């Protein structure tokens, strides 16, 4: 059993510093002419059709072969390879139910099978969950720093949803949907606290620099294409 891993998502708070200084055989060949009209043709390889069911809750994954012809044996090596790949796909924020199913079909083809793949999860058929861990405090009191969440990978969102989104600076962030305008979505932090504090930094020449720091929540416009999924369990 693989150890559980999870993607870290940032519940980001902006930090603003007010100071003077501030983060991829060739060989020889010969042409052969065959004049015989009785030349034997190689028979095409027949691929066996099977069903593959991938079950996951975002943390664990099982892979099972179904609808197997009576005279066909499914290699355990193939199932293990599928399970490992499915696990990695589920842990990846960029995967989708379609890409996971395609990966299973590619592996099946290596073993001379045509696979009809079904993905099942707590969210239904062909619905892909995603495990993540909150990093930061901008979503308190709803989400706490270090808390596990399970999201459904989807771009079907509505105002009020807590979503995981890509951000060009902070990677993955978790925020609440405040506004949706066409293909854009405005994301806000639940934590609206603004705090100020003094930071002292000793420079290389021994001079102590004093900075006034203001911490404010990160609110941001993102494209709906940046949305990874909607947090469902926390």
UniProtKB/TrEMBL annotation:
Record GO cellular component, one term: membrane
Name of the protein this chain belongs to: S24/S26 family peptidase
Keywords: Hydrolase, Protease
SUPFAM superfamilies: LexA/Signal peptidase
Molecular function GO labels: serine-type endopeptidase activity
CDD domains per the UniProt record, alphabetical: Peptidase_S24_S26
Domain Peptidase S24/S26A/S26B/S26C: start-end pairs: 118-195
InterPro entries in alphabetical order: LexA/Signal_pep-like_sf, Pept_S26A_signal_pept_1_Ser-AS, Peptidase_S24_S26A/B/C
Domain of life of the source: Archaea
PROSITE patterns: SPASE_I_1 (PS00501)
Pfam families in the record: Peptidase_S24
Swiss-Prot/TrEMBL GO biological process terms: proteolysis
């Amino acid at each position: 059993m693989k150890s559980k891993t999870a993607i870290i998502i940032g519940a980001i708070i902006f930090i603003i510093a007010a100071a003077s200084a501030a983060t991829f055989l060739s060989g020889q060949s010969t042409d052969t002419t065959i004049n015989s009209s009785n030349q034997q043709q190689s028979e095409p390889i027949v691929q066996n059709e099977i069903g593959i069911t991938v079950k996951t809750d975002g943390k664990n994954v099982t892979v099972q072969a179904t609808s197997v012809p009576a005279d066909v044996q499914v290699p355990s090596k193939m199932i293990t390879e599928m399970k490992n790949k499915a696990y990695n796909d589920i842990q990846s924020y960029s995967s989708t139910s379609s890409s996971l199913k395609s990966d299973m079909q590619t592996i099946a083809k290596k073993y001379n099978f045509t696979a009809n793949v079904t993905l099942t999860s707590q969210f239904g058929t062909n619905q892909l969950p995603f495990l993540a861990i909150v990093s930061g405090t901008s979503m308190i009191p709803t989400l706490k720093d270090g808390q596990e969440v399970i999201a459904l990978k989807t771009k079907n969102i509505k105002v009020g949803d807590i979503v995981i989104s890509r951000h060009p600076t902070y990677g993955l962030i978790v925020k609440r949907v405040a506004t949706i305008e066409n293909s854009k979505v405005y994301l806000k932090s639940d934590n609206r606290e603004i705090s100020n504090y003094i930071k002292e930094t000793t420079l290389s020449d021994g001079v102590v620099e004093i900075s006034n720091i203001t911490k404010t929540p990160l609110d941001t416009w993102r494209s709906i294409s940046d949305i990874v999924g909607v947090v469902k369990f926390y």
